[in-house]
From TrEMBL:
Natural source organism: Sulfuriroseicoccus oceanibius
Keywords: Hydrolase
Gene3D superfamilies, per database record: 3.40.140.80, 3.40.50.20
GO MF annotation terms: hydrolase activity
Name under which the protein is recorded: UDP-2,3-diacylglucosamine diphosphatase LpxI
Length: 282
């Protein structure tokens, strides 16, 4: 069943993700999009295409909620990155201080989850960040670039298995492997730095696997790749990006396809419930 929305609040970080989500909302005939924009993060060009907007600092939760309520927003979506350091260098308003005071742990997941809870208190439902983006979710099988070799399929199965384990521990959802050896695991530094580190050790034969973690909250935490991921992978010698199908977004498909052709990088989707044995059979 397709749910239609007349108004949407877009909590917009940086990057192309908020732009694509705005396009998706327009294509879904959303009549009004109100953007909560962050100083130093959100594109001014994006803000210019909103029906209404409010500039806030990271930590001004009360101001953002007041803005959405004024606009009659009952559903909101988060899209785009917030510089990780900003999440731990907050200048919180009173509402944010009260929210943070209730948290036993202060990591990105707990902070964003608490924001969702605060929005709900004011009648604003935080939707999955894949809303309006369903067509951008990777499908199972070969997507772009050269087909994976038998050895790469074996590495892919192993990498996915390891990534699922590290994601359970909340360490990272991306790993880089070469010939059955783990070269790098993503942590706080982010995917691109993990690619550079692992690619440097892989000597042109490395492979990336990116998965979702158990009980992943897709309201604010969706595995994604984009043109920049492919470019960094190509420059670092990472030859294949293996992604969890139905749970990973490819941002800007045309640019990713072009990048794969330019850099000789493959993109391959694997089913969520696939076992390594099944995946090795292609």
């Amino acid at each position: 069943m397709i749910v239609k929305f007349e108004k949407i609040g877009l909590i917009a970080g940086k990057g192309i993700y908020p732009e694509l989500l705005l396009r998706g909302a327009r294509a879904a005939n959303v009549k009004s999009v109100a953007i909560a924009a962050f100083h130093g993060e959100t594109s001014e060009a994006l803000v210019g295409r909103a029906d209404a907007h409010e500039w806030v600092r990271v930590g001004q939760l009360g101001k953002m909620i007041k803005f959405f309520k004024k606009q009659g927003v009952r559903h909101a979506v988060m899209a785009g990155q917030i510089t990780p350091g900003n999440l731990f260098d907050l200048r919180p308003d009173m509402r944010t201080l009260m929210m943070l005071g209730k948290l036993k742990q202060r990591n990105a997941e707990s902070i964003f989850g608490a924001i969702g809870d605060e929005l709900a208190k004011d009648g604003i439902e935080l939707l999955d960040a894949t809303t309006f983006m369903e067509d951008a979710l990777v499908k199972e099988g070969a997507v772009f670039g050269p087909a994976l070799s038998e050895r790469q399929l074996g590495d892919a199965a192993y990498a996915i298995e390891i990534a699922k384990q590290t994601s359970k521990l909340d360490i990272g959802q991306t790993v880089i492997v070469r010939h059955g050896t783990v070269l790098a695991v993503e942590a706080f530094e982010g995917t691109n730095e993990c690619i550079r580190r692992g690619g440097g050790l892989g000597k042109g034969q490395a492979l990336l696997a990116k998965v979702s973690k158990p009980n992943q909250d897709f309201r604010f935490d969706v595995p994604v790749i984009g043109p920049d991921t492919v470019r960094v992978a190509g420059e670092a010698g990472v030859k294949a990006l293996v992604l969890e199908a139905g749970r990973t977004l490819i941002l800007d498909w045309d640019a990713v396809r072009d990048g794969c052709e330019r850099h000789g990088v493959s993109v391959h989707g694997v089913a969520t419930d696939a076992t390594p044995e099944r995946y090795r059979k292609g």
